[in-house]
Amino acid sequence: MELNINGVRRQVADRHAQTPLLWVLRDVVGERGTKFGCGAGFCAACTVLIDGRNQKSCQVAAAQAVGKAIVTVEGASGRIVDAVRDAWHRGNVVQCGYCQPGQTLAAVALLQSNSGPDDTAIDNAMSGNICRCGTYPRIRSAIHEAARALATGGSPAALKAISMPEVQRLTPEEAADSVHPYLRVRDDGSIVVFCTQLEMGQGIHTGFATLVAEEMNADFDTIRVVNAANGRGPAGDVYGNPDSGGSHQWTGASNSMKGSFLRYRRAGAEARARLVAAAAAAWGVSTEEIKIDGGVLSHSSGRRAGFGEFAARAEKLPVPKDVRLKDPSQFKQIGRERRLRVDAPNKILGRTDYTIDINLPGMVVAAVLHAPHFGAKVASLDDRAARGEAGVIAVVKIEAGVAVVGETFADAVRGLRALNVSWDDSGERRSSKQLLADHLRLLESGEGAVVSRNEGAVDQALASAKTTIDATYTVPYLAHAAMEPFNGVCRMRDDGTLEVWASTETPVYVQMSASQAADIAIERVHVNVTFAGGSFGLHSTSKRDPTAEVVQIAKALGWKYPVKVQSLREEDFKIGHYRTMAVHRVRAGVDDAGRVTAMHHEMVAEPTSVRLPFVGDVLFKDGVDFMTVTGVVDGPYAVPNFRLVSTNFESGVPIMVWRSVGNSHTEFARESAIDELARAAERDPVELRRSLLANNPRTLRALDLVVQRSDWGKPMPERKARGIACSNFLSHSAQVIEISLNARGHVHIDRIIVALDCGICVNPDLVRAQVEGGLLFALSAAAWEEIVLGEEGEVQTQNFDRYPVMRMRNTPAIEVYIIESSEPPTGVGEVSVPLAAPALANAIASLTGKRVRQLPFKNSVTIA
């Protein structure tokens, strides 16, 4: 069978005739820029051009493409392609980047057929392509920009890939140095920055490059950022950072910039001081006489040299004492409005290696069939048919289920489909309906409840209040549904080192999982951190993870092969790791003057921190899980009489941190209740919040700004309304959502306005991108998403047909206003997530008079 791929005729074995073109491209031909997202045609991450039309390659059998021109992201070229890629790059469209090869090819196909599409045409053409990072507003703008460039006769230069240096494990000498774990100046004058944080779309590679360029006075374009090798050794983790709350390397709680602002600046300043010292010694002058600008050292005598000339000598020098960081008044890089992402070109071009893209000599690929019910085990297995499938190498029983190993992923999946497995599911099986009833029962009975915070005389204040509310709010289990399904790679090296590839937020968790599965010392596990095709907390796992699965498979095969385990989307949903289900009851009251006098907040949810090694030791105390109660126990409002009661529920359903963790549900209850109380007391929701924020000036400032920018208080047109919410989670923010009712009576989200105080803003446009993406991620969850467990406990939600998510056609206009601040940077990756649901609920109540207290909204109203 012959296929024309990127203008080259490629011979493919006839046995792959019915194999989806996606897997022929990836595993047979080796064109891995085309990505796997769902395998069922729901997400379009696998988009390619076939005879100029965008096609979902997971839905096209290879034989159907014979005689046609197949173009993948690697082979796409021409004026329209260059215009799209240039607009993507300059518009800072990319976040995790996993879906962007498919997005750009879909945009190319659109512009080939419609040179001047309006918003409706763009929405119609692009709504088949999912982006879980929420880059839709920027995609829309980029397509318009590309169309304008083409219409004016512009010919943007072809986007070039960026060559990346290979990452080596730290030597003991490098680990002991204060600079080398974080950056190295190379002989050619370029600077390699080693990023300790998982780049999962938040832009931290660009952030750290900005900090280093600032303190070194370097040429930003000479900086290359790579994922740091796992820094854990016998002496501890060199990347453990007390500033971000831990002794080990980890990414979470939006801690990347907040926890590393000083350490990367310090590394840059010390590297600069070494270069200056080396130049001063060579030129026989004082260090005070040397200046640096754009990566060039100079002296008043006329001497000049690039960093590369003194790189080797500088590395051998001790770090000078009393190295000073720049005063913020001297910043030239930090705060620059339009900094382009350093990782964008390779992501746009399909050149970035995610875990799914790792390809090792002799590697085999495995797919795992997991039990339909949590807790079920394999009772019997008939694998004869599976072993008879072409390309199947082995069938292996592992802890989580049954793995089929194949030459390609398609081979493994065919074998998986041929398995005959009976499951021992004699354990307790609970449906979503039963689990919700159990939560409500505990809320009502108070069984196991712990008082987390108790101030004043709550009961007396509620009894004497003029106006009270008593409302119960419920939220479902949620999946992360990152665009890149769970996967992992491992191989055993000849020296006895187990090498693992994983897009992990916490490399030590991967070491722990791998060492346990392999039954070897943790020091023998080396972790290579890959780019993540989204995470949202998913890659925080230490159990029931793909690392454990791939190591168990490789061990069962006698370490004969390097192994990649790749989850089908259906299996990705079945593994679990959901955001917890939760219920909240809020009672609150105001006095005769309309002042809030009391709030009694009760909640039932599954504790999260106890699932995380080390973290639970700090965040779970006296029966209270801070990760669960955050947003209530430390909320922004000053209520004189306040009580929080929490109950930890154990369901047997695997849960994990989810973007904004506890705040994702606590703030829905809190901000909905505040709004309900304001309306019951006939007070403006903004004025009520202002009265509670008197001692919280930064959150109050954000509230005032969003009120101003949204024209809050001015009458809205008929069939339109606004909702508001504010928060002190990570940063200080407030948002207003404007909605309308369309002709069919469906709610349409028209506009979102956000005000944010995140301290010193290192890269403002990337901060806006995170806020935009967080909003769309949160609105998707609020409007449609829920994991449903059937009456027999089976996971019914297994792909994007049953787990609908935000698409281009649903995307509103978004405005983000950043408040100038001299305070230290705070987190932004999750900051906009908790407020979207309550702001929308408050808008719906204002527009329709209907208060929605149960998420997702689709069960009560239709979101257009």
Describe the protein:
By secondary structure, the protein is α+β, with helices and mostly antiparallel strands. It folds into 5 domains: 2-71, Beta-grasp domain (Ubiquitin-like (UB roll), Roll), CATH 3.10.20; 79-151, DNA polymerase, domain 1; 172-346, Aldehyde Oxidoreductase, domain 4 (2-Layer Sandwich), CATH 3.30.365.10; 355-421 and 486-566, 2-Layer Sandwich (Aldehyde Oxidoreductase, domain 4), CATH 3.30.365.10; 448-478 and 579-859, Aldehyde oxidase/xanthine dehydrogenase, molybdopterin binding domain (Aldehyde Oxidoreductase, domain 4). Helix content is 31%, strand content 20%. The strands form 9 sheets. A 7-stranded mixed beta sheet has the order 16-17-14-24-21-22-23, with helices on both faces. Strands 2-1-5-3-4 form a 5-stranded mixed beta sheet, with helices on one face. The chain has a 5-stranded mixed beta sheet with strand order 19-29-26-25-20, with helices on both faces. Helix 7 packs parallel to helix 8 (256-283), helix 8 packs across helix 9 and helix 23 (764-783) crosses helix 24. The longest helix has 28 residues, at 256-283. It is globular.
